[in-house]
Amino acid sequence: MTYPIAEFCADLGDVPHATDAMTIRKKSRDQFAVSPLLRQSLAGRVADVVASPRSKDDVLTIIKAAVKHRIPLTARGGGTANYGQSVPLQGGILLDMTGLSGIVSINEGNVRALSGTCMADIDVAAREKGWEMRIHPSTRSVSSIAGFVAGGSGGMGSCQWGMLRDRGNITAMEVVSVEAEPRFVELRGRDVELVHHAYGTNAIITEVEMPTTPAWTWKEVIVAFPEFLVASRFGVQLASEPAITKKLISLQEWPVARLMTALGDIVPDGHTMVNCMIAAPTMDAFKGLVDDFGGSIVHESLEGQGFYGAPIYEFAYGHGLRQIQKSQPTYTGLQGMFPAQDLLPTIERVHAAWGGTAPLRMEVFLSQGEVVTMGSPGIVYENEAQMAAIVAKLQSFGVKVANSHTTGVREVGIKQFDDRDAVFKRSMDPHKLLNPGKLDFDDIPASDSRSSLPTQGWSFRKAG
Amino acid sequence: MTYPIAEFCADLGDVPHATDAMTIRKKSRDQFAVSPLLRQSLAGRVADVVASPRSKDDVLTIIKAAVKHRIPLTARGGGTANYGQSVPLQGGILLDMTGLSGIVSINEGNVRALSGTCMADIDVAAREKGWEMRIHPSTRSVSSIAGFVAGGSGGMGSCQWGMLRDRGNITAMEVVSVEAEPRFVELRGRDVELVHHAYGTNAIITEVEMPTTPAWTWKEVIVAFPEFLVASRFGVQLASEPAITKKLISLQEWPVARLMTALGDIVPDGHTMVNCMIAAPTMDAFKGLVDDFGGSIVHESLEGQGFYGAPIYEFAYGHGLRQIQKSQPTYTGLQGMFPAQDLLPTIERVHAAWGGTAPLRMEVFLSQGEVVTMGSPGIVYENEAQMAAIVAKLQSFGVKVANSHTTGVREVGIKQFDDRDAVFKRSMDPHKLLNPGKLDFDDIPASDSRSSLPTQGWSFRKAG
């Protein structure tokens, strides 16, 4: 499809924009290459123009011009998402929000920032006043706050505070509609769920307000266990210890410790590693727990000071896959949610089923106040049929699988939809210009970049 | 039994001590009068002399003289305990530790203080550096830190951090043995459990180190619910919301709100009140939860600023009984632990069994990382047989009942004992002088001030 890009650009006034091939290619992709399926399906999907607002006025100028010329508009932050959330499937305008950056306010337990503000910059500013973000992605050094809430679901801190979607973890958002006369709307309370994890398909975010927690001195700790199942029980128990303040619990079965070459041979042969971030004052209690489970602390350092050259959280979640892919380019995984009810037995069943042929990687965190784990056996990718078979096998053991190899909001299956979402989408994006192809809605089909893995998404309804 | 008190006093040098009747009577009792049973069994139990150390050297002088003359030694802090923990059942020396007071250190996430330091004073000192105690008793304004860990089990903050006995909630203690040559011993990690909730029967505490949390601005909130069971579900859910920072969840069925006359008629007729302390920055999320459960916020103020003339936590736990006893002197209750497994059904069964004839009072908190409640129906005391019948009835519904009407450590049933406790007791108190009568041990019988309620104590073993 071709759009009247020259006319659009002429209406931008002095708002920075670019149409050169290098900028367009760079800004049209995120970290989707971590998925071998998306690497194929998203190849060549690029914008026609990259617009870079410096202010909310610039955002309004861009929206008005986009509406006038009916050109799709896809917002992007740091570009660190793993599902192609901000890849402009139908071309058009790529809205690079990273210039709309700055702290709006830092108060007791709360920070508000312009949408493109880098998460790391927010933490630096908050720390100067004694605070830090409760939850941040493994890509903190690059990702933006709006990108995190629009494309993410949790991260560091989720083992203490829960997922982003859990009550109280996103305080408010200011968003703007895509209309001839754009409207600013302030969302608070549970209304933030309308926009959270919707990939920018129903509004453009201009400000985000999130809770903070008093800043701690964090320790990075690698604990080795000879038995994976003991390590799992340790990780689950750690998440259940209210008196130990933690930010990360990442379980990696042998031989993941070797596949991440930056870790050298710090983890003994055959051992599962549990990578943790623990508030320094609670290390005593943490070490007591390690002892009780027969673990060995093989590394301990201040945050970001590990010999492995990066913060430990860059070895967790999707970021961990990228570490492995440095030595094993076709390595991948799935986002399986091991539900709170029957958690350890489910882990045991999955572990037994793969019998050490594919190491389990999972993070432990809270969802709706209960301990869950998220992850899957590691997979050396062959083809989509192989992946589909693994999805089905995981499901047969009670694991809920989100599809991390598709760009469709519904197909990923982390955001829940109801009638309010439909009303909101129609109201905020009446011309259906926002990030088209990600959300099949009314007469808008989702893109063919969806994969056909037989996933069912994550259920957030509690049993019973 | 008579002791050589004059000889003991002669050996004290300049260590302050008193033998006048008024001092002795005042320092020989705690808040046991909240129990109608203890009011009878502890009547007239007084010390022969009150010794008031100003320093650790004074403590050593007192211990040496006590050992030399073989006189029982019972340590006491603020005297706020509810089971007669520091009542000197066999007379002898009452060791008033409140003069051994002062902060030793305040570091990131940790405070260490001399044993007699008042909890409120610690919080004042900690707040100046941005910290506060994680957990404090409802008697914070009077109680000492050592009294809290020696006689208490939890309190404000336990809905966030768990009980004192949960891993990491007491960092360390310095204790001293009762021997001719007393030894100081530093207990860390799980070793602190030897002395925690042992009523000073196995060591004299000289310093306590506890974790702190960054200080919040606290809101006191009273939420009214027309239905008790809805209020219960709300309270349990609140305890499960990691993103809401809280310090108190106290459920009080109608008509408790009227029995506490200081509350006036703020709570509508027939309503259960849930008294909460919520960190101000998380009030938005809290209010969302209240709305979801159909509650009404009938009062909100800063901590200690409520119209009812006292901090809201003085209306919770055992302290709440004292509020009721102002208008209903024979009102009492039991310490029933409603276990995490089957929590709401157990509450429903108990509620149905009493059918509104006796209002349920319970606090919601964490034990071993799981949500539990503690409390019982309110009881207008008649006699011990009546109490025993209520204990049995609660037990029949799955409630574990601790005996809050006895002075025996084992009979109360909150501290767990094993062989290490026996070794420790023999080592630290070889002459069996510490707080005799509270712990039946070797050939030391417990006092006849034990009641014969058929309680079984609180089990801290997890099911499964």
Automatic annotation (TrEMBL), chains A, B:
Biased composition (Polar residues): 448-458
Source domain of life: Bacteria
Keyword Flavoprotein attached: yes
Gene Ontology MF: a single term: D-lactate dehydrogenase (NAD+) activity
Keyword Flavoprotein tagged: yes
Keywords for this protein: FAD, Flavoprotein
Domain FAD-binding PCMH-type intervals: 42-215
Disordered: annotated segments: 444-464
Classification via InterPro entries: FAD-bd_PCMH, FAD-bd_PCMH-like_sf, FAD-bd_PCMH_sub2, Oxid_FAD_bind_N
Biological processes, Gene Ontology terms: lactate catabolic process
PANTHER family, per the entry: D-2-HYDROXYGLUTARATE DEHYDROGENASE, D-LACTATE DEHYDROGENASE
Protein name from the UniProt record: FAD/FMN-containing dehydrogenase
Lineage of the organism: Bacteria, Pseudomonadati, Pseudomonadota, Betaproteobacteria, Burkholderiales
